[in-house]
Amino acid sequence: MINVTTANFEAEVIAASHSIPVLVDFWAPWCGPCKVIGPLLEKIETAYAGRFKLVKIDSDQEQQLAGAFGVRSIPTCVLLMNGQPVDGFMGAVPEGQIKEFLDKHLPPAEVLEAEVTELGTTDAPAPGTPEDRLEELRLTLAKDAENDDARFELVKLLLAQGEDDEAKVAFAPVIAKAVAVRRLDSLQRWMHARDAQIDMAEPTARMAELQAAIATNKRDFEARFALAQLHMAQNHWTQAMDELLDILMRDKTWNEDLARKTYVAILDIIEPPKVQVAEGQVPPEDPTVASYRRRLSSVVLS
User: Fold this and answer.
1) Contact status, residue 244 vs residue 264, Cβ threshold 8 Å
2) Of residues 14, 16, 22, 34, which has the active-site annotation?
3) Residue 77 annotated among the catalytic residues of the structure
């Protein structure tokens, strides 16, 4: 059993879960049921002899991590495999039920041993695929959890593939830094836009409703921004920026610069990594990013 904080979360949970399932126990010192289930989990970890790894997170001390996992009550246990939450349970569950829960997901001991001894190059993602890049980024962060460039690219790639839960877990260690680091703030704005449409029954109907409101009143900035958020959630980047630009053309500082900050966030998200060039040469700029950056400058500086 290992106590985990934001400092060692990446190595002990995310990176570790790519080689062994990790069960995260969210608890607090004042929680009575936590004192019941804690010893049970440790006993089961010993009995399972390496089939999973148990870590504990004090939800009072690590509120950002608890928030990233959506913890609403404790004890809450979440099982991660390959960097992604796969299942969980809440409350002081009896030992038998905990074992049933684990047995649904963990390979039998003999299978696990065979996988370890027989794993070959054919099990690795194909070179050049998004999965290959994901593995590369995960390994980079396992070695250097402070590498914000790698974390930005990892979370961005996960969100682009619709792996929102894993993206939030990967983003959790830097939530506090998002206020001061613009690119991390940009990722957070994208995640918020995606979260806003999760419970939306008919996104297409909502889009039509917002477009009708804008047609009636060109200065309905709330409707324009909501439409931009909906486009952003669906990765319709230029459509989102067009709506935000329309707001900025009419009110440059609307809602405490919300439109401008969201526009800049999209530019951060869609800008591809810089290509390496010979010394003295300027890397080529993505045409879409360059065009929309010029449009922003033209409006803001006019």
Assistant:
1) no
2) 34
3) no
Catalytic residue among 16, 23, 31, 150: 31
Cα diameter, the chain: 69
Q: Coil, strand, or helix at residue 197?
A: coil
Confidence grade of residue 117 (pLDDT, cut at 50, 70, 90): very low
* Residue 137 Cα distances to 14, 256, 266, angstroms: 12, 35, 22
Q: Is 34 a catalytic residue?
A: yes
Q: What is the pTM of this model?
A: 0.62
The pair of structure tokens assigned to 27 is: 């608890």
Question: Which among 201, 297, 186, 192 has a CA at the least distance from the CA of 249?
Answer: 297
Instruction: Evaluate if residue 112 carries a pLDDT over 90.
Output: no
What would the pLDDT profile of 45-59 be if each residue is shown by its tens digit?
888 888 899 999 999
Rounded distance, CA 47 to CA 52, Å?
10
Peptide bond into 75 cis (omega under 30): yes
Element spanning 259, H or E = helix 254-270
Q: Answer with the residue of higher pLDDT: 171 or 201.
A: 171
